[in-house]
Specification:
alpha+beta; six-stranded antiparallel β-sheet; two-stranded antiparallel ribbon; disordered N terminus
């Protein structure tokens, strides 16, 4: 408990002063240098006005740049789309759904802020207008939920579904402080994520299984976590577990976010010796041609609407929302991690991030080129690749990364 309290206090103090709020200019530059990425996001609690009622639990979701929403089969699916307009979609699981697990909402601004200008006032009329807009899009039209049996007809039920969905699946940051780890991805990773998410909704909508939300074993955190796992980042959390297995597969959204930060940070970049000692890391590296700890992985914060001018938000209290940080396994390590991403510029600012990774890439390349492979052994669980193949791929990866980072630094 002492460690948990310490973690919360560190977060409250450090995040308040952290430089993790990118400007529009910084965001535009990032998108030019990294056109494909996934935001792994955790939103904190929200407090409604005027009753000051709070919702204590957070929310986990993904924003995918490099995919588009596909409703051609009557339910939410994704297609890889690496270029052109409309290649950005938010993915959110919702506990009120029964026949699907997640919905897709195209566009970052709509997904996080309901397309509302930061200088506009958020009122209940604005919120109701967004509900009507979402009904007309058809993005939620297939949703079945046993939560709203009191509805007199389908129209009223859709109103209730969307009233609940905002600000969970749409306008997520209207009343919630949200932290995201933005992680560059390649087309192989995107395809794997899309295939995973499509399988999940196929299981419920096409195969006819009922989705039942479960905090311990099948929640928004599980979908977001396993979506990133499909890209080779973070460990898998198994769903629908029974008995004690539930407690070994909890996926709290804030844990998921912290693990994404940890696994993509510079401290996690493996030397060649460390890489070949882990069969799963070798398989991920050779399959996707990437290592999760990489340049361009940055922490960013989304403030609730009206944070700087609370009078602009009549629906939620923007100053009451706090990001939640809880890891039931590793309090001390997460305490240290929070300090790092809230104080170390290389976690949130692109130029220091690139400079740090460039030094890491150069150091590991020099060390890997000097190795005598006859003195090394690879994890005996690795069956698909030889030591020579992995070594050659590692050398080529680092040489390519060094050139790429040098080019990116020259463009800043």
């Amino acid at each position: 408990m002492k460690n948990l309290l310490s973690l919360v206090l560190v977060l409250a103090a450090a995040v308040a002063n952290a430089g993790i709020d990118p400007t529009p200019q910084q965001d535009a530059k990032y998108r030019k240098l990294y056109p494909l990425f996934i935001d792994a996001c955790s939103a904190g609690l929200r407090v409604t006005r005027p009753d000051n009622k709070g919702q204590p639990w957070g929310h986990g979701a993904l924003l995918i740049r490099g995919a588009e929403l596909d409703l051609s089969q009557g339910y939410p699916r994704l297609r890889v789309k690496t270029r052109g307009p409309g290649n950005e979609v938010g993915v959110s699981a919702d506990g009120q759904f029964n026949n699907i697990n997640w919905v897709g909402v195209p566009g970052e601004k709509l997904f996080f802020y309901g397309d509302l200008d930061s200088r506009a006032k958020l009122t209940n009329d604005v919120r109701n207008a967004l509900i009507e807009r979402m009904i007309k899009t058809g993005w939620f039209s297939m949703v079945q939920s046993d939560r709203w049996t009191m509805a007199r007809d389908r129209d009223e039920e859709m109103q209730m579904i969307l009233n609940e969905a905002i600000p969970i699946d749409v306008a997520m940051a209207w009343g919630r402080e949200t932290l995201c780890q933005r992680i560059p991805v390649n087309e192989k990773q995107l395809q794997s994520v899309v295939e995973y998410l499509n399988r999940v909704n196929h299981y419920y909508f096409v195969e006819g299984h009922k989705y039942t939300w479960d905090f311990l074993t099948n929640s928004c955190g599980h979908l977001a976590n396993n979506g990133m796992h499909a890209a080779g980042v973070v460990e898998e959390k198994k769903v629908d577990q029974k008995g004690l297995e539930k407690f070994f597969n909890i996926s709290i959204p804030t844990n998921f976010f912290l693990h994404a930060v940890r696994d993509t940070s510079s401290e996690k970049f493996p030397s060649f010796k460390k890489l070949i000692d882990d069969d799963e890391e070798v398989e991920t590296f050779m399959r996707f041609g990437m290592i999760p700890a990489q340049d361009g992985a940055l922490t960013r914060r989304l403030r609730p609407h009206g944070y700087d001018n609370p009078a602009l938000n009549e629906v939620y209290d923007p100053r009451a929302s706090k990001s939640q940080y809880l890891d039931i396994h590793l309090f001390k390590s997460n305490n240290s991690l929070v300090r790092k991403f809230t104080t170390d510029a290389s976690y949130s600012d692109l130029k220091p991030n690139l400079e740090k990774f460039l030094a890491i890439y150069r150091k590991n390349l020099a060390n890997a080129e000097k190795l005598n492979l006859q003195d090394l052994e690879m994890d005996n669980e690795v069956r698909s690749y030889t030591l020579d193949q992995v070594h050659a791929a590692y050398i080529n990866y680092l040489r390519t990364k060094i050139k790429d980072v040098e080019s990116k630094l020259a463009q800043l």
